[in-house]
Amino acid sequence: MEVEKVSAVVEESAPAEAVEKKDVTCEVKGEEYAYLDATGFTSELFKIELRGLPKYYGIGELKKLLNVKMKLSTNKIKIMKPGSPFIFICFRNQEDREAAIKALDGYKWKGKELSAFEAKPAPDPLVRRRKEASAAEGEPMNIKRRTVEASATSLAYLPYEQQLKQKQSEMENILQKFGKELWTSIPTLRVFVEKQRQEHGGLPCAFEPIRPSPMQDGYRNKCEFSIGKDAQGIKRVGFRVGSYSNGFLEVESIAHLKHIPNCMKQAVVLFEEFVQNSPYEVYSAETYQGYFRQMTVRMSHATGQVMVIVGVHLQSLSPDEQQKMKTAIVECLTSEAGKKAGICSIHFEVIQKRQQGQYTNPIEHLYGDTHIEDTILGLTFRISPGAFFQINTPAAELLYQCAIDVAAPDKNTSLLDICCGTGTIGLCFARHCKQVLGVDIVDQAIKDAEYNAKRNGVENCKFFAGNSDDLITSLIRQANIIPEQQESLIAIVDPPRAGLHIRSITQLRNARGLDKLVYVSCSPQSAIKNWIDLMRPCSKQLRGDPFVAKKAIAVDLFPHTPHTELVILFERETETISESVAENAAVNDECENQNDTPMPEDV
């Protein structure tokens, strides 16, 4: 699941904004800024730069500061990278921008004095790269055009055993980095870290061999295909071979990609032919004109069902024209070729500028089943168009079984399923537990989780819609653990790529009775900070005893790509940490007497 960004919220331009827009565009001229006039309202016109940010801050904290405490009307926050000392903030009009600069410039936050000032609109990266290409008489400078195979399946050229060796090595490197950062950022744990390294071959915890995917080819159960034109100008349904910022818009065929199943390829070929013969143009990210933008295909390995969601920019189509388009799409996808591909569910997604608080585009069911179903560990799961579901179902069974094995729950165990999605992990745990309490921020995911529990006759699961940052404490109270009756509490977290917010980490650390935590990460590099926070010594914020990383297991959910899932078991070991702190203090005292500082060779 990426670095968290605030969704852009774009409103129609008001007359007053149009006047201000004219003033701003006078200052920035040239092709790179033509989009300011061509796209209607854009918040790039009313942007500020905010500098002097503290070393550690979360996007959630920043949003709360700007929108809640300071009551600023932000439109979009542009993060350069996690922990960046500066960011850009966009507003809807000049008045809001000026108010923000006045409030933020000189404001002190977390011991740092902020500085805020106007920022010019960003130049169009596509136009900029094309100018570079023109000047260099070829490709944009420093940018190499990649094939669709290299973009989507960069490890496909390697035998699968070699892919696994490479991924095992990469996960070892990440765990080594975790150990180094532990050693550097938590001096009181240095003795403990060194002991762990000696015991586990230089790693901060035990690391088992990577679990291979049972299916290496055609394993993906969901793909989002772009609709555009290839280098020859032919309309295509496939994958982009580069990014807009790098100057590439081309969409190339996915016919030879190993990880896409044949039923998806058949659906793509069918719809590509439809798009090529349609009177409606494909959408252009450069001109903001056109209609067909993307095609999402979901399939079930268990049932063979195929769901298609067609994403369209309606532009100024009349209701009658929209209906004709929808009818034509259904006729295409329900043809004999569509039936052969297994298409049984068709949806229509309206791609539009999202309003504040809107996280998804409107989706309309056009034909057939409203959902499809797949199975994991003997349980059947309903999958809605926008639901999160692990993209490699056979390997997901391995992943969830690994999580169950390392957690080792029993009939006296209550499980907290944080970021539960449609309930897949929690429901797989349910037969091994007393009860499961799940939370997720997406309402539809919770509805799917409740349906899935009922569909499988699971009665010891409850799911709650809301932000896990706010609900973990309530879930722990509801679990009502009674240690005297040998009851235990385990948490399993499977967060987005950016990891858990510090508020969630704090609540998990401070939870009494929670002695075991399983962290499932789809982006282990991004999760290191979470792991370190789980192991930090007690403080005013982290009052509960620290956890200790005990065991890690990598599971290959993404053959032919560099991505890997990592499962880490954390347990509370108060005595182990206390002994380490005491030993570390003794070593430091001895070193001070000798005017020496201990330093491991590899730090």
UniProtKB/TrEMBL annotation:
Origin superkingdom: Eukaryota
Binding positions for S-adenosyl-L-methionine per the UniProt entry: 390, 440, 494
Domain RRM, first and last residues per copy: 46-121
Entry's Gene Ontology BP terms: methylation; RNA modification; RNA processing
Catalysed reactions, semicolon-separated: uridine(54) in tRNA + S-adenosyl-L-methionine = 5-methyluridine(54) in tRNA + S-adenosyl-L-homocysteine + H(+)
PROSITE patterns, per database record: RRM, SAM_MT_RNA_M5U, TRMA_1, TRMA_2
Protein name, as recorded: tRNA (uracil(54)-C(5))-methyltransferase
Catalytic residues, chain numbering: 522 (nucleophile), 522
